[in-house]
TrEMBL record, chain A:
Coiled coil: none
InterPro entries in UniProt: CIBP, EF-hand-dom_pair, EF_Hand_1_Ca_BS, EF_hand_dom
Protein name, per record: Calcium and integrin binding 1 (calmyrin)
Every EF-hand domain range: 101-136, 146-181
Span of the signal peptide: none
Record has ATP-binding as a keyword: no
Keyword Cell division attributed: no
Highest taxon in the source lineage: Eukaryota
UniProtKB/TrEMBL annotation, chain B:
Ranges annotated as spanning the membrane: 165-186, 238-259, 330-355, 376-395, 415-434, 521-544, 567-589, 624-651
The keyword Isomerase is assigned to this record: no
Region (Disordered): 40-67, 723-745
InterPro entries assigned: TMC, TMC_dom
Localization, UniProt: Membrane
A GO CC annotation given for this chain: plasma membrane
Biological source species: Lepisosteus oculatus
Keywords carried by this UniProt record: Membrane, Transmembrane, Transmembrane helix
Annotated ranges, domain TMC: 453-563
Protein name per UniProt: Transmembrane channel-like protein
Amino acid sequence: MGTSASKLPKDLLSEYQELTFLTKQEILLAHRKFTELLSREERQFPSSRVSMEKILSLPELKCNPFRQRICLVFSTSENKDGSLSFEDFLDLLSAFSDSATPEIKSHYAFRIFDFDDDGTLDRADLEKLVNCLTGDTDETRLSAEEMRQLISNILEESDIDKDGTVNLSEFQHVISRSPDFVGSFRIIL
Amino acid sequence: MEETRHRNVEFFRLESGESAATSLYDEPTSYHQTAVFTQLPSSQSLRRRRGESGHAGPAGWEEEEGDRATAGFLKPREWDPNTPLRMLPLSMEQKRNTRKQRQEKQRNIGCWESWQQSQRTSRRRLRESLANKLRDLQPWKAVLHQIEGKFGSGVMSYFTFLRCLVYLNLLNVLVITGMVIVPITVYERNSTVRQREATCKLNDSFLDLFSGMGFLGRSSLFYGFYTRRSLDSACLNIPLLFLLSVGVVLLVNLVWVVVRTVNGYKLKWMMGNRYKMTKSYKIFCGWDFCIQVPDSAALRHSNIRNDLKVDLEEERFLQRESQRTVQQWVLLYFMRAVLNLVVFVLLSGAFYLIYFATQRSQRYQQAKSGWILNLFMEYLPSITITLINFLLPFIFCKIVKFEDYSVANKVNITLVRSIFLKLASLAMFLFFMYQSVRTAQQNSKSPTCEKQCWENTIGQEMYKLLVFDFLASLGNTILVAYPRKQLVERCSWRLVQMIGKDQFLIPLNVLDIVYSQTVSWVGLFFCPLLPLLNLVKMLALFYIRKFHLFRNCAPVRRMFRASSSSVLFYFMLLLGLLMSLAALGIHFVEFKPSRACGPFQEQERVLDVATVCIQSLPNATRPVLLYLVSEAFAIPLILTEIILLTFYMSIYRANCKTIERLKDRLVMEGYDKRFLVNKLSAPLQKYERRLRTDISKGSDSEDIHSWQGVTDLQDFEPVLSRGVSVESEEDEGRSLAVMSTQNDT
């Protein structure tokens, strides 16, 4: 276990430092955590992937209602199964790190909230989002009437061009005024 | 002319908002899924990733096309070559590619520029690593993370506030040590203190540690210690340094608090009433991604749910309120008046109690009735004030339930009452102290050693307040909350369960530390080392509160936003600071410093030290200084300020107007976009149908590309030229955000 730090070559480490918002210690920690999820054979290959189930078992993501969306957004896998390579994992941590810029954070937040990947948050997306926030069981969900009222309110507030959906720039416009967002959109290993 | 046009646009926008529920929101579902929509620049920035692997179905060909378009015109428009690679929302592989491209480009440009660029990069890296190192130096980082993970960012904001106050107190201690204590220890030769010691009888005991008398009263903790010593020139002497250090501390603190409050207020204003976006915030920024514990996650879910329900409830409450009959209003107002009267009676009762305690404590002569009673009488005012501050906020919480305010107002009103109580009780106490000082000054016929130095007495009272407040919070945590929690966990009686565990109510806890900081400011002049004491107290309080939070508290049921709360914290702090400044001002103007002790025993007024110094200055500087304090200088100063303010106000108004205009234009562009997309998608759908039949006949994809070229260049040329304006919509959104942040200067 102790040798895992030395597995990451120095030039690769500095490249990761350049390409992400993570510090050296954070990258090494991420590498250790990531290799723990891999089996013994898989550790030999630098490009091996960890399945979505295993990633979701991390305590940092276990309680997150958006955990599957997060994996899907950051996965570069060909077959869209949400599995992450180490570099994807670093991308994820970088976007959620302390020093990531609000633009990056809001960009990824938008993609996480865009459940059907169509580039805008429409009523269906917003409904799923609200359900994720309140808890997605029958007794925790808002009633249909409340949901309708809430979504109309949200669209009234943030849909600036009144086309019935919230697009990226409208989303960033809302987010840019919220001081809490940068503080809460964080995952620290 | 301009006016009418503006109104027209306004009307248009309003109309669109009203009709939103009916026609507009049904239509877009078809509109934003059309093929043309996916090619708009605004949606393409998002689909870059999806383009990597083709989708099945008729959308497949257009994905490829989209990717090519991305490579063609979108990347250079979006990614400025100077932004660091890590700031691009791309995957690692794509970032590598971008870097390769940049390096190639760098090879093309000149040697000088490439050197400049590499210099810029290395400078940036150095800065970042330095910032990281500095951040690592901050204390309690791990603890704060832990708290945030378990209890959310609202509770953490309390602890960061506490940490800020620790820094502030540390700064104050450094200033006072540097300006007063160090000069005194360097020039320590005089023995006025020892002379006085000889004349007074000495009976020191460890109890002095609590009462602040005896050896502690003679130590450098209190005002009386700082006499005029060997360091005694006209402009460099202990009294002047003393006055200056108090002034510097208060000024620095004022600036610090004001800057913090203004920063917080700016943010709050941006989210404020003008642009109502509260529900969007709750949805888009509702989840705290830091949470790692299942319990807190479940709690967060229920918090958000309750919060949303409360909001929707509040909307209905407003509706209900507008439907109230006159009779109901009258009843309600009567009820509120009665309850306000109750609050008033409670407050005046509390103040009378403080008055009574102060009187008893002052009149009490040190009898031989045992040290416990002595100490109790010494502490009587502190105990009264602390008890009142502890009990009344709970009563206020109960009272406000009957007043039928909306939820947000309920919290605010309780808070305002509690703030008023805390600060006013302190002010009242000071007032009574001053009054007894004045009567003592008028008939000062009985000069015992301790009584003469009334500044010391006030300092001792502040000292006692601080000490007792600390002991009370320590006792509350260990002796009340901890047994209570054990009882609730072990015992299943209904009564016990009804009481429940303690809750970590952030506003009341913040009020506690604001109070203690205010005491330290008020007492600063009389007890210059009070910041040191406060520093120690805050440090201990951090651990006590942490213990309390982790061991004793049930999670808070109500959600508390970090941003809105921190504004409130600093505002409370500002109120406390203003109060202590006022108290000190009154003291300087109204009272003669006592003759027996302290740095100002030779002066008629405290500020005379400064006058003496100015008198001794060379002739050239004196008129300048005199001019600076005269009205002749004040009037131009005020005028300049007024002009500056007017200037900023007009900028602010202009920015507001521009924001409105931009908003209107955005709505218009949105309409245009929808119109164009609808127009475009009709022939496209027709073509798709034809394409499907073609595919079934077995034609190849070359045909598709040729069609694309034809449509792009010929059929829709006028439309494409309009497309530029669609693109500009995004930019406008951005500039709108920029404008609104700029607008708060």
